Automatic annotation (TrEMBL):
It holds the Pfam family PP-binding. GO terms for molecular function: holo-[acyl-carrier-protein] synthase activity; magnesium ion binding. SUPFAM superfamilies: 4'-phosphopantetheinyl transferase (SSF56214), ACP-like (SSF47336). InterPro entries: 4-PPantetheinyl_Trfase_dom (IPR008278), 4-PPantetheinyl_Trfase_dom_sf (IPR037143), ACP-like_sf (IPR036736), PP-bd_ACP (IPR009081). It comes from Thermomonospora cellulosilytica. The keyword Transferase applies. The lineage of its organism: Bacteria, Bacillati, Actinomycetota, Actinomycetes, Streptosporangiales. This is Acyl carrier protein/phosphopantetheinyl transferase. Keywords: Transferase. Residues 214-291 form the Carrier domain.
Length: 291
């Protein structure tokens, strides 16, 4: 990928980083994941990162926090992708984002979660066989834009506007931050949809959210029953302490659940706010505060 004379290297792997290659800090972190799929995903992503940093001549643990101006990670299914900026980083470059999703039949309602009216209109105009693929491609694009934005703390995926929804490579922006511009490319990788985005000269003033009306009470049992219906799990097994990520390892399915809850309880909150919560109890509190 080249944008504003910037080249990007992307590496896919389905292999995990072996334990002996982990630093002490990495071993501590991975041990906290236990022996489940989350641990395996983290080790695959770490291996992809090590390959990219090695090829770029960077320390293996150079990226400890994201967004990062030179590296981005994504994982889905049985593989992970790391993307890194090749060569010197231009002063105007502020971030890179990558996202990969497998082919799927998405819930059409999720489009309103990450596409604006113009983008949804374009998507609705696509023939049905193509619409599902474009839906997933645009999701990966918005995720990549979000990851590339160094000031994404209060952003939603809808905040990022692509100039041409049909374009496989082009530019995007964030209207409330006129100094922030993006370049991106989308394509296919191992049957899935891959997008990489770069951000340039981002303005970093914080954006707050106001609440016009007090929220009505939302009972935990209401949320649990709704989640149980969507995911076909026993509602009685869900408690306020249930980890949100234990419901599904698929980020897209989780978004479908969140969209369903937002519609059911008339609540709106940002992806960044969602990433700050860990349990169903915290999700209920977020739903209450976001109405």
């Amino acid at each position: 990928m080249a944008a504003a004379s910037v080249r990007v290297l992307a590496v896919w792997t389905d292999r995990e980083l072996p334990p002996h290659a982990l630093s002490a800090a990495e071993r501590t972190r991975v041990d906290a994941f236990g022996a489940g799929e989350r641990r395996r995903r983290w080790l695959r992503a770490r291996r992809a990162q090590r390959v990219v940093t090695g090829l770029l001549g960077l320390p293996g643990d150079v990226a400890r926090r994201f967004p990062h101006p030179r590296l981005s990670l994504t994982h889905t299914g049985g593989g992970s992708v790391a993307a890194g900026v090749v060569g010197p980083v231009p002063p105007s470059l502020t971030g890179i984002g990558v996202d990969l999703e497998p082919p799927r039949l998405p819930d059409p309602r999720t489009a309103r979660f990450f596409l604006d009216d113009r983008e949804r209109a374009w998507l609705a105009g696509q023939p049905p066989p193509r619409r599902a693929a474009e839906h997933v491609r645009l999701w990966t694009l918005k995720e990549a834009l979000f990851k590339a934005d160094p000031a994404n703390a209060d952003a939603t995926l809808r905040d990022y506007r692509v100039r041409d929804a049909a374009a496989r490579h082009g530019t995007a922006g964030r209207p409330h931050r006129p100094g922030l511009t993006f370049g991106y490319v989308s394509g296919r990788l191992r049957g899935g949809h891959l997008s990489i985005a770069l951000s340039f000269d981002g303005a970093r003033t914080p954006v707050g959210r106001t609440t016009d009306m007090p929220a009505r009470t939302i009972a935990f049992e209401q949320v649990a029953d709704r989640i149980a219906g969507v995911l076909s799990v026993p509602a009685g097994e869900l408690t306020p302490q249930t980890p949100l990520r234990s419901l599904t390892m698929d980020s897209f399915v989780l978004v479908e659940v969140i969209v369903d809850l937002q519609e059911e309880f008339d609540a709106v909150f940002s992806q960044a706010e969602l990433k700050e919560i860990d349990t169903l109890g915290e999700l209920v509190e977020l739903l209450r505060s976001a109405r």
